[in-house]
Amino acid sequence: MTKSASSMNLAIAPGKPPAFRTVVQPVWNCSVLVIPVFENQDQRFVAKNLPPEIAGAVHTAVELHDFEAKAGTILQADGIGGARRLILLGMGKAQDFNADQIRWAGSLLSRHLRKIKVASATFHPAGLERTNWPVLAGALGEGFALGDFKFSVYKTEKKANGIQKDPRDNKPLELIVCCPDQASEKAVEKMLAEKSIITTAANLARRVACHPGNIIRPDSLTAIARTLAAANKLKFSVIDAKAAEKLGMGGLCAVGAGGEAPPALIILEYHPRSAKEKTAKPIAVVGKAVTFDTGGISIKPAADMGAMKYDKCGGMAVLGIMQAVAQLRLPHKVVGLIPTAENTLDSRAYRPGDILRMYNGKTVDVTNTDAEGRLILADAIAYACQKFAPGALIELSTLTGGVVVALGGVFAGLMAGDDTLAANLTAAGQATGERLWRLPLDKAYRKLLDSPHADMVNSGGREAHPIQGGMFLSEFVAQGVPWAHLDIAGVADPKKDDRWWIGDNASGFGVRLVVEYLQRLGA
Ligand code: BES
Ligand code: MN
Ligand code: ZN
Questions:
Q1: Which of 89, 342, 510, 519 is least surrounded by Cβ atoms within 10 Å, i.e. has the fewest?
Q2: 456-496 confidence digits (pLDDT tens)
Q3: Closest CA to 501 of 417, 428, 434
């Protein structure tokens, strides 16, 4: 039997986030000076933005090493004129430049600093400060923190040959950001403080997501959520399997029936202090947390099944979002709901052909036990609508392989019943680099879900499968609640992604996006 409870502290023990500092330029006397360089950059541009000896050092380094400054490249050279080391970050072509470019560069930088075992670097914008420097500096810091994520708790230290881990590996990094003047410094400081909270939350989501299915189960996940809630003064409650059964949550109970740890619906509530918001409707955020998806009786093929530990990533995003919302003290009420279950095989497991009665009374004919996410989400969504009457509902899930085929690891699928919500989420996605592509929800697709025996099937085959998922979920959203479904199956643990902070890891997709959306609500 798995004893997962003892691993709880391990599972959420936070890595040390980087420290961000700001200075009003110039600070040339530092151990590591970092400067962004563009592809085909006119050297006069560098000269215009830097003192002659620094510009000279950049020029020499570029010439000596044939540094092309392509995006994703880095060059370390000797510093001249103060700094001991000079690091040039390739930013790609100037005309392609956007916040994501500097975010990626930031993550490359922190990874590089870890490699050379140096803890602190000073970034000089070298002209970048002229265009919305607080936003760009925020993206830089964000990338820096995301790039420093590492999941290695299961690697035992190499004590056998006497080699201890280098203590510098655990030392938090420091990024010093130069600003042109005091007003800009203030804005950058505020931005970096926010990004520190948000990236810490995203990295928390990534860390829990990376733990395997024998450690994270519905029971240990519930304990983690409870701890997180207490640490962030969130209201915590849980609908356990018994209560779910009484409430008629047929989807959640069926999917979780085969697991040794029973299913649960975890609920986290954030209530802002401000009296004005007390009466406002909350925003509900719902995330799928299937702690491992074998497919159930409709079992998945063996190849790559291990990646199904990432089937809890929607729920992990909700954990991160709730932590960030609390620490940022956003002015809106936000409730997070995480239905969690293990989808596995057992004599008690649900089977194809079963007919389920869901929380909102509708019936579902199970055609495939591998289309389990929508079943647990349906109950969570219906419950959220009834209990909290939300002003908007945003749901995140690794729902379909179809969206991986369609959009890969770059865009998440967005399906929404509300154009304004869709537009606002898309804009937040653009700003954070967690981008969304909308697929249609149209009643013409509804017939794919028709069942001869019940109100609907849970899967009508491969045709328009991501949309079937969205159409299915729409059956459980109460009338009048603006809602959106984000299918993050392709982006939660992208296979071929060149964003350097991701690597072979969970991306934390959704935390930065939804927090940005919520922050913009206040504006
Ligand atoms: N968790 C999977 C979706 C998934 C697939 C996530 C690949 C990440 C990568 C989901 O529960 C599932 O199994 N979907 C099936 C349903 C189908 C068999 C009816 C799918 O989309 O293939
Ligand atoms: Mn499945
Ligand atoms: Zn699944």
A1: 519
A2: 999 999 999 999 999 999 999 999 999 999 999 999 998 88
A3: 434
Residue 292 CA to residue 160 CA, distance in Å, equals: 34
In the chain, CATH 3.40.630.10 covers 211-522
Which pLDDT score is estimated for 276?
64
Atom of ligand 1 nearest to the CA of 311: 1
Please give the Cα distance from 329 to 320 (Å, whole number): 14
The pair phi, psi for residue 343, each rounded to 5°, is -95, 100
Third-level CATH fold of 19-202: Leucine Aminopeptidase, subunit E; domain 1 (3.40.220)
Q: What confidence category does residue 1 fall into, taking pLDDT thresholds of 50, 70 and 90?
A: very low
CATH of 211-522, one of 3.40.50.2300, 3.40.50.1110, 3.40.50.150, 3.40.630.10: 3.40.630.10
- pLDDT for position 46: 72
Q: Which atom of ligand 1 is nearest to the CA of 493?
A: 8
**Residue 129 falls in which region: left (phi positive, over 0), alpha (psi -120 to 50) or beta:** alpha
Ligand 1 atom 5: the closest Cα is on which residue?
401
What is the overall mean pLDDT for the chain? 93
Distance from Cα 301 to the centre of ligand 1, integer Å: 12
Cα–Cα distance, 206 to 317 (Å, whole number): 8
CA distance 513 to 6: 33
**CA 403–ligand 1 middle distance (angstroms):** 9
Whether 233 is catalytic is no
For a ligand 1 pocket test, name from 370, 457, 462 the mutation site with the most ligand atoms within 8 angstroms of its C-beta: 370
85 part of the active site: no
Residues of the chain with CATH 3.40.220.10: 19-202
Residues within a 6 A CB radius of ligand 1? 293, 295, 311, 368, 370-373, 398-402, 404, 459, 465, 489
Task: Answer whether 0.85 is exceeded by the pTM.
Answer: yes
Whether residue 25 is predicted with pLDDT greater than 90 in this model: the reply is: no
pLDDT tens-digit profile of 64-109? 999 999 999 999 998 776 778 999 999 999 998 999 999 999 999 9
pLDDT of residue 169: 72
The set of residues, in sequence order, having a beta carbon less than 8 Å from that of 287 and lying 6+ positions away, is 313, 314, 315, 316, 317, 318, 319, 336, 337, 338, 395, 396, 397, 510
Q: Which of 366, 369, 375, 400 to mutate to test the pocket of ligand 1 (most atoms within 8 A of CB)?
A: 400
* Ligand nearest the Cα atom of residue 341: 3
- Residue 469 CA: which ligand is closest? 1
